[in-house]
Specification:
64% helix, Alpha-Beta Plaits, 2 strands, mainly alpha
């Protein structure tokens, strides 16, 4: 299983598997990204994977556990390398945006310096270009996963990132190019919020060992518990 980020994703996958005719029960483990299905032996496993895919996630039948584990490890390693590249790009693009918009909080004269040199409107144009690159590049992974989940009415953490950054970005675009549409006193830009959120979430995914999308604290905690927990347990009767 791939693409799950939180406990609600587990429920969505379990519900999807339960809709397949013949399935008696389905249990999904968020930490290990494995699903156990109780069904007749003659049930076509393709129906199960198709149900999961329709729900917006990825799935494959485990025929060889060792080979599957090796493939999963290779996939995660490739995702982490891609995430590191995205993180580096996001930081390089977001840092100038952050400095231009928030630098005056550290150095009060910085705002006046920007206004006197490149001008505030040109500063907003530059922030627009840089933030657009952040969202279209490193931030794309959150939209690819989050928007479809939102349209299916099953939002996840990727949806939260996509909605939040889009709101900040679109408001800023209106303030930059058609400020007359906004009420007096509300013409401000929030490009730095959208850019920094993408960079921060890329860092968060790398910091928490996981996949190529936002995994959320539930999944990270589950994996940590799985690694630190005992290999066996003894059940004693009452």
């Amino acid at each position: 299983m791939a693409g799950m980020t939180c406990a609600s994703c587990v429920r969505h996958v379990e519900n999807a598997l339960s809709t397949v005719p013949g399935v008696q029960s389905a249990s999904v483990n968020l930490a290990t990204e494995r699903a156990q299905v109780r069904a007749p032996l003659d049930l076509d496993s393709t129906l199960l994977t198709q149900a999961v895919v329709r729900a917006g996630y990825e799935a494959q039948v485990v025929s060889n556990p060792q080979q599957s584990s090796n493939t999963e490890a290779a996939r995660r390693q490739a995702d982490r390398l891609e995430l590191k590249r995205d993180l580096l790009l996001a930081v390089l693009l977001a840092l100038p945006v952050f400095i231009l918009e928030m630098g005056a909080h550290a150095i009060p004269a910085f705002h006046h310096f920007v206004a006197e040199t490149i001008g505030m409107q040109n500063s907003w144009y530059l922030q627009f270009v840089l933030t657009s690159a952040v969202l279209a590049g490193p931030g794309r992974r959150f939209f690819v996963k989050g928007i479809p989940a939102l349209l299916r009415l099953t939002p996840d953490m990727n949806s939260l990132v996509a909605v939040g950054t889009t709101a900040a970005y679109l408001f800023s675009v209106v303030a930059t190019f058609v400020p007359a549409w906004l009420p007096s006193g509300t013409v401000n830009v929030y490009y730095e919020a959208a850019a920094v959120i993408v960079a921060w979430c890329c860092l968060d995914v790398i910091w928490r060992p996981g996949q190529g999308q936002y995994i959320g604290s539930d999944q990270a905690a589950g994996r940590t518990a799985g690694k630190n927990g005992p290999g066996t347990a003894r059940c004693r009767g009452e």
